[in-house]
Amino acid sequence: MKSKFLSLIFVCAPATAWSCETPVIWTNEQVQERLATIASDTQSEFARLVAYEDLACAARPTVRVLAREEAVKTGLTALNASILTQAMFSRESLVLIPYDDGSLTAEQPKHAITLPAIRYAFTSYEPENGCIEIRHNYCSRSEVIDIQTDRITIFNGSATSELTLSEDGKLRGYYVDEAKIMIPIEAALF
To answer: Which residue has the higher pLDDT, 48 or 98?
Structure first.
């Protein structure tokens, strides 16, 4: 019997620009050159990261989207870290909803259905510490979103969630509640 679940929704509103003081207007040729650098296996990871960060500050939104999509496909740690950091620190909140990944046990479906959508409103940001606070105005490490290289961990009292950036640009992982029941969650990053 297959359970019905909603996919995780990553609901966000832009907060501030992540590191771009002024949007950059790139010519089509410059965009193509940088996209090719990002996609190239022969370029260094540093060159690919610089090309991505250049395009992440593009004035045209479609150029930023193309750069993110190309960068995620590489699977490179430095690019994933840059993408995840940029995405998380430019938002004000996120909402988690459980979904069925096909691996739920008999007890998980009942529990997952009763799990309400969880909205985390961001109250403060500490980019230098890779931290977004969800309750207080400082990163207390008890109610916080901790951003690592290619994953985020959400600590909320006795419940935790860990989501990893995958090659298709989604965050996937599990929500673990007080009863230690793991519920699969997924988020579209953009």
So the answer is: 48
Same domain, 52 and 131: no
Q: Is the pLDDT of residue 51 over 90?
A: yes
Q: Is 2 helix (H, G, I), strand (E, B) or coil?
A: coil
Q: How many CB atoms lie within 10 A of CB 37?
A: 20
* 10 part of a folded domain: no
Structure tokens at 110: 């009942």
Query: Could you give the angle at the alpha carbon of 68 between the alpha carbons of 63 and 73, nearest 5°?
Result: 130
The domain total for the chain is 2
H/E segment holding residue 32: helix 28-39
Judge whether residue 182 has pLDDT over 50. Answer: yes
Longest dimension (CA), the chain: 55
Tell me the C-alpha to C-alpha distance, in Å, between residue 157 and each of 83, 140, 175, 190. Answer: 27, 11, 13, 27
pTM above 0.70, yes or no: no
With 90 as the cut, is the pLDDT of residue 55 above it? yes
